[in-house]
Design goal:
By secondary structure, the protein is an alpha/beta fold. It folds into two domains: 2-201, Rossmann fold (3-Layer(aba) Sandwich); 296-435, NAD(P)-binding Rossmann-like Domain (Rossmann fold), CATH 3.40.50. The chain is 46% helix and 14% strand. The strands form three sheets. It has a six-stranded parallel beta sheet with strand order 3-2-1-4-5-6, with helices on both faces. A five-stranded parallel beta sheet has the order 10-9-11-12-13, sandwiched between helices. Strands 7-8 form a two-stranded parallel sheet. Helix 1 crosses helix 3 (51-61) and helix 5 (97-112) packs parallel to helix 6 (129-142). Bound molecules: nicotinamide-adenine-dinucleotide. Residues 6-12, 29-32, 35, 83-86, 98, 101-102, 122-124, 157, 159-161 line the site of nicotinamide-adenine-dinucleotide.
Amino acid sequence: MNVSIFGLGYVGAVSLGCLARDGHVVVGVDLDQTKLELIRQGATPIIEEGMETLMRDAATGGRVDVTDDAMDGVQRSDVSFVCVGTPARSNGSQDLTAIRRLSEQVGKAMKVKTGYHVFVIRSTVFPGTVEDSIVPIIEEHSGKKNGQDFDVCFQPEFLREGSSIKDYDNPPLTVVGTDSVRAENVLRDLFGHLPCEFIVTSIRTAEMVKYACNIFHALKATFANEIGRLSQAMLVDSHAVMDMVCRDTRLNISPAYLRPGFAFGGSCLPKDLKAMLYVAKNKDVSVPMLANVLTSNTVHIDHAIETVLSAGKKSIGLIGLSFKSGTDDLRESPLVVMAERFIGKGLDLQIYDPEVNVARLMGANRRFIEETIPHIASLMTKSCESLVEKADVLIVGLNDAAIMEVLVQQSRDDQIILDLVNIPQKDRLRGNYQGVCW
Ligand SMILES: NC(=O)c1ccc[n+]([C@@H]2O[C@H](COP(=O)([O-])OP(=O)(O)OC[C@H]3O[C@@H](n4cnc5c(N)ncnc54)[C@H](O)[C@@H]3O)[C@@H](O)[C@H]2O)c1
């Protein structure tokens, strides 16, 4: 395939070398004359394991050329990869100057190019940038239409500096954000051979995936370091601890607890987090990330409550009261916090939870109800149907097949449904549906 690569930094130079190695004809475009000259001579513009050989082979193979002329790059290729920098400004915002300027240049090139072209954005850009900034600029300067004369898609780059050639050949996933089958097929031809899943999604989702991955990596490193500092202060071997944490592939290194949903609660997570924060304080160990976990959880509960209150309705039906489906444990349940807040606001609240039978509750659970929400028994109904019939707002905090069936059968167009559990049958519900964070 004839490929052009715009921006020959870490991402662009590795892609240029690897695509040429894989048999494609590649033209690299950059404004930096030093980088262009190095590549012409078969040298590498970046220090990376394996790059010297890769670039020497690229130069001798006769399939690589470089230029500083964007027009030339677009003319000589069918597909362009955009790998220019998107650095942070001093206030943290993303500086899109380079990618906007480049969009203008390739737009002008498209004005005179005959034939279809695919632009693949590989620079990290926040969701909406491709559709709201890049596409309009290219359309304006080319006078042509996205989805017709050309396609712009987004493919997040997952390589890490230091192991970028290995990562290029062995990515965790290939993610392509596009709604164009033509563009998808071009990318399948280029990357379909890689030993990983090839996932096609919307452009916005693909843009967000890159951020979610990088933020998750930052979060993981900080978590391990905060557990490290806590362990050190308590004379515990932090490597042994984290090694065992990582060996649990059922609850720890797994999709568990990684689905957007409602706030966490229950008798263990908040209690143990608070206990460890108390130890940290006593031992003068600063753990700012862990110290803010409960604050974030409270913000999540407040967000759900605000969503309900802003609807301005009086009659609220809360489905679920325990802290998660499949238990009657009410301690530290975020749904109890919600119920309390609605009672405080004088709203007409009804609660249905088939797993919580107040008459049968004993011990700590019963004490919790009596001390925290003593009127709970009078607010609980045994009939999900009657709750659904009376409520203006339905809050679904329990994932249960029988409840879902009642909702599918009985929900009405005039009701607001706030989903805390990602209802599988959401498309079959009537009413004004809203997910808590989706
Ligand atoms: N470095 C990484 O490991 C990595 C990994 C994944 C994603 N990314 C993302 O990829 C993008 C590129 O990162 P990088 O580290 O390769 O950047 P870099 O700063 O090393 O390289 C960017 C290159 O783009 C060139 N450039 C700027 N404007 C240009 C224009 N109009 N025409 C042609 N060339 C132009 C610059 O001269 C420079 O050589 C960023 O958005 C980054 O966030 C980087």
